[in-house]
Amino acid sequence: MKFSAEDWPRVQVSALLALLMVAVGSVALYAANRFHDAAERARTVALAQRSEADGKLRRVREEESEIKHKSLLFNRLQERGMIGAEPRLEWIELLNDIRDRHRLLDLRYELSPQRPLDSAEVGDFAFYLSSMKIDLKLLHEEDLSRFLADLRQQARALIRINRCHVERLPAGSEERSGGRANLAAECEIDWLTAREAARKQQADDGRGAGRQGAVAGGERGTGR
């Protein structure tokens, strides 16, 4: 195919249009790539911000749940007059009273020193607990159920039962001589109370001084 002088201007126009289209396409491709990169960066930032927001929301909900739980616990303690210093002597008298009422064969206990439930406070109050180990000799398993039920209902403290283990005594053991105890029970419980937070440091200082003795506020006893 031959080009004449008259065809050359048309070829130039077509070539210029083709070059212009290539240039426009290149610019469009570059812009699309830049837009895609920017979109990816924006997406990454958005995901990071969302993850951070979700984490903050989760922590807030956990704190709200903990505060709600402690508030409910405090309300229960307040309703039963469990706010203030531990009435330890009253607790021991209650144990002996329940023992006598249900004619339990043997009751032994060991009450540990009081300690803070944790570092958190609810309003103007802080929570404390005292752990107790209880050993019982029983005729029937129902004796243990009645003992714990009465303790929960009557104690001026919130009773938290951590563990109870019951085992049958061997037929020839000393404990079963004369047809007495059939079962031995060992329980670990907590006595929970609350106190004004302003007095917390004073109570902690008092417990620290008490540790100079052999047992810092710990008590042992028997209901025989």
TrEMBL record:
Residues 198-208 have a biased composition (Basic and acidic residues). Keywords: Membrane, Transmembrane, Transmembrane helix. The chain crosses the membrane at residues 12-32. Residues 198-224 are annotated as: Disordered. The keyword Transmembrane helix applies. It comes from the Bacteria. The keyword Transmembrane helix applies. Residues 209-224 have a biased composition (Gly residues). This is Fimbrial assembly protein (PilN). It comes from Candidatus Accumulibacter adjunctus. The lineage of its organism: Bacteria, Pseudomonadati, Pseudomonadota, Betaproteobacteria, Candidatus Accumulibacter.
